[in-house]
Structures are given as C-alpha cells and as structure tokens.
Amino acid sequence: MIITGDYIQVKELQKDITVDGLLQKYDDSSPYMFGKVINAHKNILDELSVISPDIHNTVILFKRVSKLPYLNTYFVNRQDVIAIMSMKEFETL
Asked: Could you tell me if 78 and 9 are in contact, meaning their C-beta atoms sit under 8 angstroms apart?
C-alpha cells in the first residue's frame, strides 16, 4: 500500500507509565496515545528515520481524537504528532 498525503499508519501501543515515581495505568480516555509506526508517506518516512533507520522501531505520540481506524491499525496526520521516539525510549517510560 502507498500512503498519500501527510499520513502515518501506526499500531497502538498500550503501557502503564511511571511519571514522577507514580504509576499511571494505561487510560484509553487519555487525550493522547502512542503508536508504533507501520508505514507512512515517503516524505514522512525520511523524517522519521532520523530516530531509527528501521522505521518499525519508531514510536509516535499523537492526539487520540485524530486517529482514523483501519484494520487493527490507525492513520494519523503528521500535524497531530506531538513527539517521535525510538522503541527503546518508549520501553523506558
């Protein structure tokens, strides 16, 4: 599949996170969510590859309300991405 426009295809990542030493349980009503990058438009892939040469090791933080469901994945517009990190960074949260 070729993705057009400024879209990124992601698989949601669910994780309990520690913030300031306090455990925060995964909350599906949170205004943001994490997604493992599956695919994206070529121009965006170039931008995301700065984090990791293997795009599948890249995680984005994005606005939950902006996700478009598609076959157990989501499409997210680039303008709704808040942060980009490696899978290793995500696992240490």
From this structure: no
Secondary structure of the chain in the HEC alphabet?
A: CCCCCCEEEEEEECCCEEECCEEECCCCCCCEEEEEEEEECHHHHHHHCCCCCCHHHEEEEEEHHHCEEECCEEEEEHHHEEEEEEHHHHHCC
Decide if pLDDT at 15 tops 90. no
The model's pTM: 0.84
> Nearest CA to 44 among 22, 76, 1, 87?
76
Instruction: Considering only residues 7 and 28, tell me which one the structure prediction assigns the higher pLDDT.
Output: 7
Question: What is the rounded distance in angstroms from the CA atom of residue 43 to the CA atom of residue 67?
Answer: 20
- Phi and psi at 87, nearest 5°, equal -60, -35
